[in-house]
Amino acid sequence: MKKTILLLLFVTVFANAQKAEKEKINKTLNDWHKAAADVKFEDYFNAMTEDAIFIGTDATENWVKPDFQTWAQPFFKSGRTWNFTALERHIFFDKTGNVAWFDELLNTQMKICRGSGVLIKVGKEWKIQQYVLSMTVPNDEVDAVIKIKAPIEDALIAKLQKK
Fold it and tell me: Which domain holds residue 48?
């Protein structure tokens, strides 16, 4: 009986701790998206680890943090940033509780996009280690999208295959 009570207590404490960490991660991601919308360059990039990777919607957009900052800076300086809000988000943890990964559907100026990524716990804060932004395409419209992007991406495919 004592073992059962201890097990239930442990499970309850663990579940509550994980719920609190999910809330922190949700806040981190929501604040990160809001920092872009509010044109807050420092807040936006401080939410990321120093060795973070950002992968954008274009096949050529695979940036380490300093390169992403260089690309993004003109948008922040001109006040023409992006505004993403989460429609739904799923968060998962590794066994240590110090690494989390997520996927989210976003309302954006590009309509619905999918974000996914990895966060790591640095001290008591969660930081974005990797973020992948993808446009969604309704399955019935894939052929039309392929026709639009084929001329551009065929050239990129040929270039990448030569490496």
Answer: 2-161
The model's pTM:
0.89
Q: Which amino acid is at 116?
A: S
**For 23-77, how does the pLDDT look when each residue is reduced to its tens digit (9 = 90+)?**
999 999 999 999 999 999 999 999 999 999 999 999 999 999 999 999 999 999 9
- Identify residue 148 by its one-letter amino acid code: I
Q: Interior CA angle at 140 toward 136 and 103, to 5°?
A: 25
Q: For residue 16, give the amino acid letter.
A: N
Q: How many domains does the chain have?
A: 1
The enclosing domain of 136 has a CATH number of 3.10.450.50
